[in-house]
Amino acid sequence: MKQRLIRSHFFYALSHAGIAWGFILNMIIFPRLDVDTYHDGFIYPMALSASRGAVPYKDFFSSYGPVVPIIQGHWIKLFGENLLALRIHGGFLISLIAVILYLLLRPVWGLRLSLIIVSIWMVGNPLIMQQIGRAHV
Q: Which of 2, 44, 67, 130, CA to CA, is 20 to 30 A from 37?
């Protein structure tokens, strides 16, 4: 019984460490890595235009809909008109998705499986996998 309790505590500590590491990767390390020439070169000008008062589809084209550049424009207005702020915004959204995913999965699949899935999401989301895939090119 005691050994099972130790294994259980070790698993939870390991899962929480994985989620914390994923948060650190998404918010601190990965936003500073290789520039995504398409998205960074396409999304940043839209967000910058929106932050300066331009209107999507009137003053500039937005292939991701009108709401995305407006939200990103507010973000860079708050945190500075630079690409790093916009990339940290992406990491923040990935982390927010992880929290929502955990809250939705835990009642259905339990704590253990929910933590595993969220840990995988935190270190294998599109922002990270895209950078890793392009690093080998």
A: 67
Question: What tokens appear for 113 in the block?
Answer: 């499986």
What are the pLDDT digits (tens) for 25-70? 766 776 666 666 667 788 889 999 999 999 999 999 888 889 999 9
- Contact between residue 76 and residue 85 where contact means Cβ atoms under 8 Å apart: yes
- What's the token pair of residue 98? 């992880």
pTM value?
Answer: 0.72
How far apart CA 130 and CA 134 sit, in angstroms, is: 6
Q: Are 20 and 118 in contact (CB under 8 A)?
A: no
Q: What angle do CA 105, 102, 13 make, to 5 degrees?
A: 115
Name residue 56's beta-bridge partners.
Answer: 60
